[in-house]
Amino acid sequence: MIIGIPRSLFYYKYGTLIKTFFNELGIDYVISNPSNKKILEDGKTLAPSESCMNLKLFLGHVKDLENKCNFLFIPRFESVNKGEKLCTNFYLLPDLVRNIFEEHIIDFNVNVNKGKTMKSAFIELGLYLGFSYNKTVNAYKKALETDKKVKNNLLLKQTNTLNNSNKKILIVGHSYNIYDEMIGKPIINTLEENNFSIIYADICDEKEKNDELSSSIYFTYNKELIRAINYYKEYVDGIIIISAFPCGPDSIVNDLIIRKTKDIPIINLIIDEVSSNTGILTRLESFMDIINKESAYGK
Amino acid sequence: MNKAYLGIDIGSISTKGVIIDENNNILASSYIWTLADPVNAVKKLLKNLKQDIPKNYTVVSVGTTGSARRLIGIMTGANVIKNEITAHAIGTLSKYKDVKTIFEIGGQDSKIILINDGIVTDYAMNTLCAAGTGAFLSSQAKRLNIDVKDFGKMALNSKNPTKIAARCTVFAESDLVHKAQIGHKKEDIVAGICESVVNNYLNNVAKGKKITPPIVFQGGVSKNIGVVKAFEKITKEKIITDDNGHLMGALGVAILAKKEKEEIFDFDILNLDFETKGYECKKCPNHCEIIAIKKNKKIVDAWGNRCEKGSLI
After folding, report:
1. Which residues span the domain enclosing A111?
2. A296/B289 CB distance under 8 A
3. Which of A43, A296, B87, B243 is the most exposed place for a label (fewest CB within 10 A)?
């Protein structure tokens, strides 16, 4: 049996957790290829009109898994923290995929607001796949440990970056945007080619997070990002917000960030399906000029 | 022989070129339509400039800016290739050293640049939508059967500008048709369009930005006196425009070129055969859009590929 996992949306948040869980149980899985033009084109033809770019990419990733697996792992995440929510797209994924594809889907539901925790979802999954309760619980524990280890390593690496002498740019965006080959990667590559060090807002020590700006935001992922900004602000030379078009939560929260973040250069880059990157490059180059100040003027 | 510097600003709609001397005085300038053919636009531009440059001057350095800056930079062997925002700021600062805010509305782009102590501190550009730019004005002028050059003057005759939706070109156009059909005067509609351009700009591009005078307004749309007056009416500030406002990007990049290594520029590239080609690389699912530029049938540069497989050079 092979389980297919789309490299999109939830994958960038819970990838380690899911992969370790399957590894521990000895289940084979396949992950779709990194986003590319074909995946986006496929997604565009499959997605309902007016979908966001991420949803289109997601469906392209599911298409990429066709004939490569027996089951699709399409989880439903409604809320992961009490009193908060995720974007609607995260909780309609299984229904949408079921409507479009013939493949079997494995159920996985997380809705903390209704008592369905991550742990209970993983245990249900293990039992459904025919494993004993003990084995499942152990696999989940191991997955949690590994996930924590990976996150700690990233945090350590980022702390080292904070101490280097390069100019630094804080990237604020959902992990499924900033690490995606079609959305955030080209931007981050351009910045690195120009000798900027990148600090990622989605990697942040829980202890350092600051709720000053975010107390009334109930979109979990946006809340996490906005809490990291206050901490990293004093260490970086500029902030770039990356969003995919269109995004409801981002359109509210990014505006809030820009209005409330003073005394530091900040831009919001919105990525859409237009294949030419000239517009983004112009914005990026100008932003780098602002950060490099005098040197950009040949002074 | 005196040294001169060439700056080319090649935008989506128009191509601008200046030649300056060592003191940033403009020796020659040209302003033509790009007509979706940057290579030939630049050839034509160079031909105009070659005729106008005083005989005792030689171009020793070249800079390019605008959306086709890279292509044209390769073609002319430019020493500096710079984004429009920095180029516009430098050009404007050379004439108005105290400027704090630059409004720029071009053919498809609109931007606001904020300057403090002679350095750009913040900017914003239109995001996905080109509403309220030159392209919008020229299509509305066509619809009203007015020469876009007379548009501004006509707006000044209006005493009672018609309210026109500012958000989206498509909606603005249906709104405009509706207003015409119910009997609004043409000059009122024209003035309404000018105000809608300004409202769109201030509510979208300049949203949340602190606008401090002195304000310089440039880009093709700054030639439209109706829009200039609408800006003054709505911002209640004096708006500075410059006869050479459309040349500021080219001027800025020419000034930047002054600081580069000197090398005599040969206007003979006019006679070379340049050909560009864009295609999708099919060697992997990334389908990168590759642009190749050929000089006399030989590839001189290519870009757009994300990996080695798409490399042509």
Report:
1. 2-146
2. no
3. B243
